[in-house]
Amino acid sequence: ECRLFFPNRTPTTRLNGTWFHLTVQGSDLLGIPPMNQTVSEGEAVTLECISKDETARVVWYKDGLPLGPVGQRAWVSPGGSLTISEAQPTDLGLYKCEVISTAGQTQSATAFLNVKYKARVIYTPKKVFLPFGRPGMLECQYSANPPTTKVRWEKDGFLFDPFNVPGVYRKNGSLHFNKVEETHGGEYTCIPTNEIGSIGASEPIHVVVQHPPVFTLTPPNIYLRKPGDSIQMVCDALDGETRPTIVWFKKDGSPLPADRATISGGNLTISDIKESDRGMYQCVASNEAATISADTELFIENTSPRGPHNLTGESGQNYVTLNWHPGLMASSSQFSVAVRAVDSQDWRTIRVTGNRATISSLDPGREYEFMILSQDHNGDGMFSKPLRMLTKGSASDAQVSTPIGINGPLSGSQQIGPPQRLRIYLGVDGYILEWDSPSYGAEFLDRYQVYRAEETSDYKGEEGLPLVQDTTDTSYLVGDLQENSIHHFQVKSLSTEGSEGVSERYILHVPSYQKAETFSLF
């Protein structure tokens, strides 16, 4: 009702009131919703949810999930209210009741149930290993509502206050050791407390000070083996008086060959080595305190074919026919014929198959030198001994010369000259071999190949040299060399279309006073 008053008149009011009718439109389903409540552990609590429609159905949710079977400790009344006889810490959460009519209409309301309980330890390990001489931590996992106000630690039945122990501090209830010592071993318990109280101390935690493993033997950085060989990769470690657990892995994640690999005393043995065994290996030594590792790499040495031998030839006026024995792995080998005129420094290289080739387009009455290089899927092998032959006729019979070839000339785009001016000098990191680019065909250069060998009682430098490196640079780091030794070097240039040029061979003498002399073999 709205009524008008006149304070300065008599009477102060008259029949001038106006009435308004207020209608509140509410749900026809939910009569009494649940309310937020706080209870202590063990107390009973009821979350009301009363429907106006007796035929409606009530469904409860906890933390967004349907409430499962409530069991003997809780029940839902016929009216829809949820009652918990003895509240537990796990009952804490957000509850929602949803009323569903027979016609499918719904209405819901939520309430938060807070359960207060004493601080308690959730989990502590029975035994903990701390690494001697390294940082360590002793954790106490606890729960409390309200939150804890303090965490008390005891060691061997006495108060263990980190403030009185150098190098030890407490953070979030856990004990942290800057550097574990032998005196830190013992029986520990933790006691969390909040404003309500504490359930009590944890189960004893047996702390053992463990020496971390230390390698007493590690594998070398590199192992080099041939296919079919066996290898033993060494590794050993100690952690005080005992030996830690030692295992081996391939760092690329692939398994060790179960039928060919064994581990004994820390050493890894692999028999009948295959190409798939190449790669990085890791020896891992571990105990309860720490884990350490050492790496090594296994290289598989490619078996290059033996240099061709018994090189013979038959000359004509403009050609030379060569024959040779192919050496090892003949079934899969290819060959390159290197040829030059003796009075010239330029080598030509021609690829052939089989163990016979006719080199044509030669000048009459001119001496030529030939070498055969064996090749297979593993790469280049070794050169044969050089063979010199004089073509028949005389120089006066020579016409305009054409490039050396097999049964005909090669196209100019396929030709490439040999590397020029090989030289060796002593640098900071050892001896360095350098050379200049080919005098012609350099625009077709694909790469260089460096060949080298050291003279020994078994090798006098008469046969071809083994390949040691492919490179696009014009230098090669030889490194340190032993005094009073002799080393042979040769560099080959390869074009993108398969043509090759071979340099002169250089010989390096390393005297006892570590100065080098170089000279050309030819």
Automatic annotation (TrEMBL):
UniProt xrefs under InterPro entries: FN3_dom (IPR003961), FN3_sf (IPR036116), Ig-like_dom (IPR007110), Ig-like_dom_sf (IPR036179), Ig-like_fold (IPR013783), Ig_sub (IPR003599), Ig_sub2 (IPR003598)
Annotated PROSITE patterns: FN3, IG_LIKE
Keywords, comma-separated and alphabetical: Disulfide bond, Receptor, Repeat
Residue ranges annotated for the Fibronectin type-III domain, each copy included: 304-394, 418-513
Keyword Disulfide bond: yes
One GO cellular component term noted in the UniProt record for this chain: membrane
Sequence intervals crossing the membrane: none
GO BP term (any one): cell-cell adhesion
Record-annotated Ig-like domain positions: 7-114, 119-208, 213-293
Top-rank lineage group of the source organism: Eukaryota
A Pfam family per the record: fn3
Gene3D superfamilies hit by this protein: Immunoglobulins
The protein, known as: Putative receptor mediating netrin-dependent axon guidance
Species in which this protein is naturally found: Panstrongylus lignarius
